[in-house]
Amino acid sequence: MTSTLLRPHPPRTTRTTGAGPRALARDWSEIQERMLVPLYEAVHTRLGVGPGTRLLGLGCGSGLALLMAAARGADVTGVETDSPERLNLARERLAAHEQGGDASGPAGGARLAEHPPARAQAYTVVTSLEPVGCLTGDTDALIARLRDAAPLAERGAAVVLTGWGPPERCATAAVLRVAERLAEPRSPGRWRPAGRDDLEDVARRAGLVPDGSGRVSCPFGYAGIDSAVRGLWSTGLFDAAAAATDPAQVDKELREALHPYVRADGTVWMPNVFRYLVARTR
Question: What is the distance between the alpha carbons of residues 164 and 169, in angstroms, rounded to a whole number?
Fold first, then answer.
């Protein structure tokens, strides 16, 4: 089995309270990404990811979902277009997995390339596990990636899209409204509440055929407010607000918005529901 990590486009720039791209990627990897493990597990189980699966992960981030798929025996390829720092962390994770000698893991070594490698066999599964539909313009970028990826997959291959659930089912939506309120009304990348049919709209515009969906509980739990702030900053959902105002102001209001979710022991707990859509290539 092989694992390949690709970065076909330049990374975006990120503005925060002073943390650089490397620190943000590390915060994502160590704090925030694990919040989506129930979503990753549900998708892999639904699709029967395992030996014989040739999986292409779009927006693979720091590689946790790829690692979980590789541990199931899948042949995984990762594409990360926005953050070379996250991509480097994904490479480290997969390399450590391979060096550990796990017989179910990939055997070819993690490789970086500018373009998808030619394959004798097409992908059987394509995943986009970074939730979309919560930033203005993010679905347009995903549609372009899906159109590029579809010809590399088998006909009828499963393509999984993920997004936030209804705002009333996501406690974190109340905190994210800080980002919506402080950003310029027309600024690109401004946070917005997820729409009910966002994923279906993306699938149809990308030329895919919707074929079922599901919801998964993904509570956000943090050791304390500082950890919550670092994790939420690492998502990029506050970038537009920081650019429009002052990162220190965003940080202050973010901390205030988190207070209702602080428990007696100082931990932070926010129940959320995420949604996934299974579509098929034509």
Answer: 9
What does the angle CA 246 – CA 248 – CA 249 come to, to the nearest 5 degrees? Answer: 65
pLDDT of residue 179: 95
What is the domain range of residue 78?
3-170+191-220+273-280
The C-alpha atoms of residue 257 and residue 250 are separated, in whole angstroms, by 10
Low-confidence ranges of the chain (pLDDT < 50): 8-16, 102-114
**β-pair partners for 268:** 222, 262
Question: Does residue 178 form part of some domain?
Answer: no
pTM above the 0.70 mark?
yes
Count Cα neighbours of 186 within 13 Å in the Cβ-side half-sphere: 0
Dist CA 80 CA 58 (whole Å): 7
Segments of 59-164 assigned E as strands: 75-79, 111-113, 123-132, 153-164
Q: Where are the beta strands (DSSP E) in the chain?
A: 3-6, 54-58, 75-79, 111-113, 123-132, 153-164, 209-217, 220-222, 268-270, 273-280
- pLDDT reported for residue 117: 57
Residues pairing with 132 in the sheet: 163
Determine contact, residues 62/93, Cβ cutoff 8 Å.
yes
Number of compact structural domains in the chain: 1
Task: Tell me whether residue 236 is in a domain.
Answer: no
Q: What is the CATH number of the domain that holds 9?
A: 3.40.50.150
Q: CA triplet 278, 34, 153: central angle to 5 degrees?
A: 30
The rounded distance, in Å, linking the Cα atoms of 126 and 118 is 16
Q: CA 42, CA 31: separation in Å to the nearest integer?
A: 20
Angle 247-258/225-233 helices, nearest 10 degrees?
Answer: 130
Q: Give dist(CA 246, CA 75) in Å, integer.
A: 44
> Could you tell me which residues are beta bridge partners of residue 4?
77, 111
- The radius of gyration computed from the CA coordinates of the chain, to the nearest angstrom, equals 18
